[in-house]
Amino acid sequence: MLTSSPLLVAAFACLAAVSATPIDITRDEGLSIPLSKRSNLRSETGVVNLDVLKNQLARVQNKYARTLKQYEANLGRPHTLAPGFFDSLKKRSTASDGMTDDGDMEWYGNVVVGTPAQTYTVDFDTGSSDFFLPDSSCGDCGSHDTYNPSSSSTSKPLGKTFTLTYGDGSETSGTQYTDTVSIGSLTVKDQTLGSATSYSSEFEESVQDGLMGLAWPQLSVYPATPFVFNLNNQGALSSGSFSFKLAESGSSLFIGGADSSLYTGSFSYTPVTEQGYWEVTTNSLKIGGTTVASNQNSIVDSGTTLIYVDSSSAQSLYSHISGAKEDDSLGDGVYTFPCNNVPNNIEVVLAGKTVTISPDVFNFGQVSAGSSMCVGGIAAGNFGFWILGDVFMRNVYTQFDMTNSRVGIATLA
């Protein structure tokens, strides 16, 4: 694992505004990238995949443990969310050892790397900051398209390694390079990427080849400036933001603003409270007009499937759903409810805007074939903060504004 020198700590104070070295970038007015969905959490028959569900919490715990530690390594001080998060881990009775990190839901699209150009599929994750692909020498990278640095005339070794550890104890590790990276007509030369010689079980079995992090540079393991921030720092975008539509079909990532055909009205914005994650304050969580929680530190994360809240808020929410109950046999903090009583009145208020959680999005399906009980898309995480994952993002058009350090939401068209 990399550690940070004092020079790196100082550099991170201005990474959000200026890239460490000039990077040649092609200017564009904005670009829409189609996204595909890969989900292991619900089968085609509408029954929840219990193995994946049980590992959900461990997967999320591990991701945030890794990135919170890296934030401190990069900046020389703990993230304000770190004390509560690590205290909560100490109180948990369930360990992640021995769990298989199967993944749950990912939103992926194409990136192009190297000279000559080669296309890869990557998961776009607003909850992490690094970009990596499987190396051509990787022996456990499955059937993925691999990156061969020696075959790219624009690849340059950085003489650095990287290691990412996952909930099942497996690792993604390898060597860092810079190369030309493009998404459509948006191009960054000398973009840092990891070429993984060893892949975790999660990525070995995934549809996508790698991952591109879209969170702030402060979380980078390498450490390096993420692709979208390089685009913005060098003035390559007419609008320093990117936006997501996540849906069963027609999903997209728009870099350089927002796709006006995908939303109606105007955006409601809320400031990022601390750069690192896309961290904001959730105004309230309601059901049937009754407020069950308010003013909660929250992270908007496209790489997490569920909405995670604290235990008290989860208990209060589900107490308003007749027949609902917590069922730890399905995983820590998981709640079930009668399949014939799917709530249609759950609301998250963010940036002063009320977002109704669609019943189809909230309902993750039957516990088992023929069961009368279904799994809810809001779980108790007890991290010391909330996570607004896909269950939230699939109900709004979401904009991540790098220039103004804020998150915006708008009504889907």
Automatic annotation (TrEMBL):
<feature type="active site">
    <location>
        <position position="125"/>
    </location>
</feature>
<protein>
    <submittedName>
        <fullName>Acid protease</fullName>
    </submittedName>
</protein>
<dbReference type="InterPro" id="IPR033121">
    <property type="entry name" value="PEPTIDASE_A1"/>
</dbReference>
<keyword id="KW-0732">Signal</keyword>
<feature type="active site">
    <location>
        <position position="301"/>
    </location>
</feature>
<comment type="similarity">
    <text>Belongs to the peptidase A1 family.</text>
</comment>
<dbReference type="GO" id="GO:0006508">
    <property type="term" value="P:proteolysis"/>
</dbReference>
<dbReference type="InterPro" id="IPR021109">
    <property type="entry name" value="Peptidase_aspartic_dom_sf"/>
</dbReference>
<dbReference type="GO" id="GO:0004190">
    <property type="term" value="F:aspartic-type endopeptidase activity"/>
</dbReference>
<feature type="domain" description="Peptidase A1">
    <location>
        <begin position="107"/>
        <end position="410"/>
    </location>
</feature>
<dbReference type="Pfam" id="PF00026">
    <property type="entry name" value="Asp"/>
</dbReference>
<dbReference type="InterPro" id="IPR034164">
    <property type="entry name" value="Pepsin-like_dom"/>
</dbReference>
<keyword id="KW-0378">Hydrolase</keyword>
<keyword id="KW-0064">Aspartyl protease</keyword>
<keyword id="KW-0645">Protease</keyword>
<dbReference type="InterPro" id="IPR001461">
    <property type="entry name" value="Aspartic_peptidase_A1"/>
</dbReference>
<feature type="signal peptide">
    <location>
        <begin position="1"/>
        <end position="20"/>
    </location>
</feature>
